[in-house]
Specification:
Layout lengths: L1 H31 L11 H11 L9 H10 L11 H10 L2 H4 L8 H5 L7 E6 L2 E4 L4 E2 L2 H7 L7 E5 L10 E3 L2 H8 L5 E5 L5 H4 L9 E8 L2 E11 L13 E5 L9 E3 L4 E2 L17 H12 L7 E8 L5 E7 L6 H4 L10 H14 L1
Antiparallel strand pairs: 1-2, 1-6, 2-3, 4-5, 4-6, 7-8, 7-12, 8-9, 9-10, 10-11, 12-13
């Protein structure tokens, strides 16, 4: 029986392996086929160096991630992680889903992390049952909406989990719209509509521009490993998959000289606002890191955390969402920065040590 389980486990990995490689092949192909993107292949020495380093982690090392990174940034770095390796090896090693999935459920954010950390919530729907902001059961949702006086429009409705690319997010302006949206069978959370700081609006104000803060927990101490500003363009949301773009932020809070979109188009200025990225500084950068670290200290079992943060109209950093699975590494790496930064070798060593134990 034990051997049979091992066989099924290996078959499951192989199926996932093929799916991951095919998915990233298509992503990379879309970038390479982009007429505004010019691919710069590795030199013979760089190719040998890269393959020798990463072959210890996995047998099939694709060069496309590092070539795209080099093409965009103008520099080669052997610590750029092959994108296929991240969901196959690194994320499962750092985060185990069965222990942490509840921390991605937006309904429990305020109860777990405390008030003032996330947008204000007015209503929850969990397993088909409505609850108010204090998690008291609502027996008659129609009466509650008409009599409570606690709902402040405009509002945002989100699925409690899995809002990748802005999927399922709805904006409502009145009670009729709200009632129509919340009667669908899915679990959801009803939140305040965010007003963004003018310090961020200068980059793009048609939608929220969130800051992706990635943290790694080593020896129970969280560390910020990379930060990127995500912006909409041409009427899109800030999500890359929804037409947005990202600009990496240095350890000193300074913008990279370019932003990049899903298909590898490089922008030295925002195409709509014409703000030049080079030399810009992210407002209240140290406050951002402090708030992100405070949140990470309350996340247990997961060792890799991606937070979507925003600067509100009081110039306070708050958190939109916690991401523990399906995280992306391209925001940093397409700026020529290894996702794990200076900690790459340590993480690789830890991963290889774990593999040897099995």
């Amino acid at each position: 029986m034990h051997e049979l389980k091992k066989i099924f486990k290996k078959l499951g990995f192989l199926k996932n392996f093929v799916s991951v490689y095919w998915s990233f092949y298509k992503r990379h192909r879309n970038i390479i086929d982009n007429e505004k993107f010019k691919l710069i292949i590795l030199t013979k020495e760089e190719k040998k160096d890269y393959l020798n380093y990463w072959k210890e982690v996995g047998p099939f090392v694709s060069l496309k991630t590092v070539e795209i990174s080099k093409s965009l940034s103008g520099r080669y770095n052997k610590f750029i992680i092959p994108e296929e390796f991240f969901p196959l090896y690194f994320e499962p090693f750092l985060n185990k889903k069965k222990n942490t999935s509840f921390l991605e459920n937006k309904s429990f954010y305020n109860k777990w992390f405390g008030d003032g950390v996330f947008p204000e919530c007015f209503l929850f729907k969990i397993d088909g049952v409505f609850y108010d902001r204090e998690f008291f059961k609502i027996n008659d949702i129609n009466s509650y909406l008409s009599e409570s006086g606690l709902i402040k429009f405009p509002l945002v409705i989100k699925p409690t989990i899995d809002t990748l690319g802005g999927r399922g997010v709805v904006f409502v302006e009145n009670e009729i719209q709200l009632l129509n949206e919340i009667l669908i069978p899915n679990d959801l959370v009803v939140q305040e509509k965010i007003i963004q700081s003018n310090l961020i609006n200068k980059f793009y104000k048609e939608s929220i521009s969130s800051v992706r803060v990635c943290l790694l927990i080593i020896n129970n101490i969280p560390k910020v490993i990379n930060v990127s500003l995500r912006m909409g363009k041409d009427g899109s949301l800030d999500n890359i998959t929804a037409g947005g773009m990202s600009c990496n932020i240095s350890e000193n809070g300074v913008f990279n000289w370019y932003a990049v979109d899903k298909i590898g188009t490089r922008y030295i200025e925002h195409p709509n606002t014409k703000v030049i990225f080079k030399g810009q500084e992210l407002p209240f950068y140290e406050d951002l890191k402090t708030e992100a670290l405070n949140i990470a200290n309350k996340v247990h079992y997961a060792h890799l955390i991606s937070l979507d943060m925003y600067l509100n109209d009081d110039n306070k950093w708050k958190c939109l969402e916690i991401n523990l699975f399906g995280q992306t590494i391209r925001f940093a790496q397409y700026a020529g920065v290894p996702f794990f930064g200076s900690l790459t070798q340590e993480i690789v060593n830890n991963l290889l040590a774990k593999k040897e134990e099995k």
